Amino acid sequence: MTITEAPPAAPATPPEPPVRKASTRKRLVPYWLLLPGILWLLVFFALPMVYQASTSVQTGSLEKGFQVTWHFATYWDALQEYYPQFVRSLLYAGTATILCLLLGYPLAYLIAFKAGRWRNLLLVLVIAPFFTSFLIRTLAWKTILADGGTVVGILDSLHVLDVTSWLGWTEGNRVLATPMAVVCGLTYNFLPFMILPLYTSLERIDGRLHEAAGDLYARPLTTFRKVTFPLSMPGVVSGTLLTFIPASGDYVNAELLGSTDTKMVGSVIQTQFLRVLDYPTAAALSFILMAIVLLMVTFYIRRAGTEDLV
Amino acid sequence: MRWLRRNIVVIAGVLTLGYLIVPNLVVMVFSFNKPNGRFNYSWQRFSLDAWKDPCGVADLCGSLTLSFQIAAWATLGATVLGTMIAFALVRYRFRARGSINSLIFLPMAMPEVVMAASLLTLFLNLGARLGFWTVLIAHIMFCLSFVVTAVKARVMSMDPRLEEAARDLYAGPVQTFVRVTLPIAAPGIAAGALLAFALSFDDFIITNFNAGSTVTFPMFVWGSAQRGTPVQINVIGTAMFIVAVLLVVGGQLVSNRRKKTAATT
Amino acid sequence: MTETASTSRGGGDVRLSGISKTYGSFHAVKPLDLTVPQGSFFALLGASGCGKTTTLRMIAGLEEPTTGTVFLGDKDVTGLPPYKRPVNTVFQSYALFPHLDIYENVAFGLRRRGIKSVRGQVGEMLDLVQLGDFAKRKPHQLSGGQQQRVAVARALINHPQVLLLDEPLGALDLKLRRQMQLELKRIQTEVGITFIHVTHDQEEAMTMADTVAVMNGGLVEQLGSPADLYENPETTFVANFLGTSNLIEAEVAEIHGDEVVVTAGGAKLRLPAGRCSAPTASGGRLLVGIRPEKISLAHADDAGTIPDGRNRITGRIADSSFIGVSTQYVIDSPVCPEFEVYAQNIERDSRLAPGAEVVLHWNPAHSFGLDAAQDIDAGIETVDEEVS
Q1: Which domain of life is it from (chain B) (predicted)?
Q2: A6 contacts in chain C (CB < 8 Å)
């Protein structure tokens, strides 16, 4: 549109009247609202990170106390000693994330598009497991995957266990205390964190888009590939993050369902911190884990192109 | 075969749902077990013993009460602080907006064990005594971001003209907030509070690092996984599950009836 | 400067004195003086971003003016918050409280002022807008038109000195909009309250308001009754934004008393000096405007039958479209490339088809003259573009 500097209406402005300003009190309102919460996060979230960073370059012992000596070798030593646990953590967490996506997507799709009046019931069923403490539920997997139990029996008779043993995921006819049990537990524990964001973004998709795609000669599978899936990308991104991040630092599943051969980096940090009391090593390990996760998350968000996750 | 292909999504979805639900059923069934040894992992025979005496194990109910207390206070703290932040973020323009957004996002993008370990270093350095207060501080910290997210979503979808309309209709700032803003933001605040309660009540890793010798319910379960799992754990898990489901269903029924009566009159 | 305002005469007038609003470096409303007489139906008309809604919000108190003063009667209300002003607003898309039923929505203002017995007033108000049976419904259970009426009732129940309407009909479909225009006009006549109505729809403004202020770029371009604005536009923006105008770039040839003679593309046109909004002098440039429906069309063969004393232009029909009551022609003329003519369908001349040579002629008194320094296309493409 064109805006004319309309000459006829331009009034000759007399000496400028005083310009009003919003009162200072009003301008400070947002800061007062933010202050307590942000302070809390700064003191109990950001500041600890600084302390941890400083701890990681300290040397000393519990008796004599620790001093900052810029001993970066701790990082190197920690990595050298515990890299199997790091690799394992990322591998298990990655596998669990992919499994969550594969398992969660159909259910989220079902709830969003096909559930009709059952939608609310299904949503309740998805979050219902949360109502029981996750540790109790994880212990239930010990029963489900117990040696000689029904599940193991079925898998054995279908020769699934032969394949998984050959791949190194299970041992003989055991599932418990193997990588498969740990991944199974991780997948189970973080599945709702995948399903809910997926559902949220799928639900926003206008059902008429499916009809439009069908009208434009797209087969159902093509419709999914070209329309539904791309539109659900925000859900996929936040779902994978919400699954991968906690899974990578988790040690509950590895400790309860796994063996010493399936220890993840979380276990190591916990042991170093609470049992061995080697604070510098623990801090260094935790710092490395944080760096890896943050790098991966940043890279992933950049690639996926969604910046607004909060 | 065609039927299979057409319903593949339904079948896959139901299977996933089964995967999610089965452990809960196992917990429920095993609350009626009478195990032989110390561990309640394999089925022996039916018994109501544990249901008759849910607090029959030392420290179990004490830890449960403690968890409830911590969760209640953490919910209150995180909801109040988080709601304030959410309102500030949606309603006002101010400097440092970007860094504040990251500060709120980061706790959600951080493995729990990292937050747990770093918080413990802080407490150790400050010489704080680990216990109820350190756990509460930690819980408010990690619940805060989730409350902010939940409330923010709701406040953002709220038409700012509603508040203008209230002011236009003779409601002062306090009245506007109490009569219009709060009721409309309430579902978001409630969602945030529920989430905070669930997260706090169920948290293990951060609590385990910062609790010292204080034992919350998840820590009790963790400990029992090493020493022997009493059936009472399953009883409590099942009871909580049933109570929560009843609350959800009841809430749904009430809101349904309200909708119906509103539609018929 | 307020002492002189006489209480008796301007008792309930809304007076804006030098008010302006700036956001950073953007001037949403430039210093503006405006008086809305008590009891009038006043429209602020303009495209989106012209400052009309900001002006309205400054009257409501929802926006603080950067400079200037708002008077209600002789009371300076500039510093008063909205909840202390005897002014109510019907918001764009209504802003009904979703958590309250219709009854409580309408009662809201009364309750906030501490009035205990609201039942009778709310009932009356709901009857006035014909929604008595819907008191217990929630806003989302009503149709758009019903919600609109609730919004009006919720504001009017407070007996405000001034009712502000911010695009109140924007969300309704065309038929309902027509109906509500008449309805609002009826209510205004009945209650006698000053209505200030913001709209981008020129037809809506002209149907409902007794006075229209056309705004553009944060300024009031022209103010007057709908007929006055239509017949005597003073800027190209008004000429193009309200209806359609043919604007001819011309040069002033001579001035005879109160008649100005101009030349354009070889044709000699005359117009009354009193209808020139720009200063005229021989040799100066002028835009001559003429509304399409004021023009008569004759086939070139009949040129001899045209009475003397009329302005004439020759051209060729480029396009014609039949729309029932009239036929709209686009004429290609050396004077003006796309000349629009609306001819009433009284007797249709079958020779008037695309390609035919024609003579356009009109009464010189219907022409108007505009300052040639303006953008000749101002206000054109904004007419139907916005939906907000």
Answers
A1: Bacteria
A2: 216-217, 219, 221, 235, 237, 374
Return the structure tokens found at A174.
Answer: 């055991």
CB contact under 8 A, B117 and A40: no
ipTM of this complex prediction, to 2 decimal places: 0.90
Residues A249, B221: C-beta atoms closer than 8 Å: no
Count contacts between A and C (CB, < 8 Å).
Answer: 60
Q: DSSP code of C381?
A: T
Q: Where are the alpha helices (DSSP H) in chain C?
A: 52-60, 102-112, 119-128, 144-156, 174-191, 202-208, 226-231, 236-241
For chain B, say whether A70 makes contact (Cβ under 8 Å).
Answer: no
- Is residue B236, in this structure, part of any structural domain at all? no
Put simply, the answer to whether C155 touches B169 (Cβ < 8 Å) is yes
Class of domain C14-231: alpha beta
Residue tagged 């004599």 (tokens): A64
Q: Smallest CA–CA separation between C192 and chain A, in Å?
A: 30
Query: Least CA distance to C383: which residue of chain A?
Result: A1
The per-residue pLDDT for B115 is 95
Which of B16, B134, B195, B201 to mutate against chain A (most A CBs within 10 Å)? B16
Q: Which CATH number applies to C244-371?
A: 2.40.50.100
Query: What pTM was estimated for this model as a whole?
Result: 0.80
Sketch the domain layout of chain A as residue ranges: 86-207+236-304
| Angle of CA points B71, B238, B144, to nearest 5° | 20
| pLDDT tens column, C139-174 | 999 988 899 899 999 999 999 999 999 998 887 888
* C113 closest CB neighbour out of B168, B170, B180: B170
Which residues in chain A have their CB less than 8 angstroms from residue B124's CB? Answer: 279
What's the mean pLDDT when you consider all of chain C? 87
User: Does some domain include residue B240?
Assistant: no
pLDDT category at A159 given cuts 50, 70, 90 is confident
**Cβ contact A7–C374 (<8 Å):** yes
CATH topology of C14-231 equal to that of C244-371? no
C195-215 as b/e, with b when 16 or more CB fall inside 10 Å?
bbbbbbbbebbbbbbebbbbb
Q: Which of residues 22-61 of A touch C (CB under 8 A)?
A: 22
When divided into structural domains, chain B yields a total of 1
**Quick one: what percent of chain A has pLDDT higher than 90?**
41
Predicted local distance difference test score (pLDDT) of residue A252 = 93
* Residue B92 domain-assigned (yes or no): yes
- When pLDDT is cut at 50, 70 and 90, the band that residue A210 belongs to is confident
Q: How many CB pairs under 8 A join A and B?
A: 250
Q: In angstroms, rounded to a whole number, what is the distance separating the alpha carbons of residues C287 and C273?
A: 13
What's the CATH number for A86-207+236-304?
1.10.3720.10
CB C47 within 8 A of CB C387: no
B207 found inside a domain: yes
